[in-house]
Amino acid sequence: MLSIYYKLNCVKAKERKECLKIMNRKTFIIITSTIAVVFIFAAGLFLVIKNNSSYKKIKLGDVILKTEIALSADEKQKGLSGRDYMKENNGMLFIFPQSGLYPFWMKDMKFPIDIIWLDDGLKIIGLEKNIKPNTFPEKFSPPSPAKFVLEVNGGWSDENKIKEGMTARVLNK
Description:
The protein is of the alpha+beta class. Helices cover about 35% and strands about 30% of the residues. The chain has 2 domains: about 1-55, no CATH class; about 55-170, Jelly Rolls (Sandwich), CATH 2.60.120. The protein has 4 helices and 7 strands; from the N terminus they run ααββαββββαβ.
């Protein structure tokens, strides 16, 4: 496209140098703008994908929880440790590849939590309430194999009348 412009508008030898400067500037602007647009689009797409995959809303009882998803081994190992607090009606959902007797501990925790173990149908099969940070290195395990583990603020289960046998629902919102 620029070569056509050059042939049509840059006929005289004297004008060619000036014309090439203008074309080079225009080419630079077009390329730079294209790269910027592609970068902004890619960054936005990454954030949308990350936000959609990192959090899920779960309904348990009459409450909707915003849960952060722990999928990788590093995310599962770190969990909520090192954090000063967790917002009300928030939680962390651990997803395992298959059901198992996954133990949890309070290493580097700074606030109490309830641990809720769920089977592959999201039915609550185990519940430890108001576990304090000073219980480390004690480990807490489900009574039977669990596929999912939900950590919420300590006392949340009692406040919201959460009991074994209840079933959680993942919302698509």
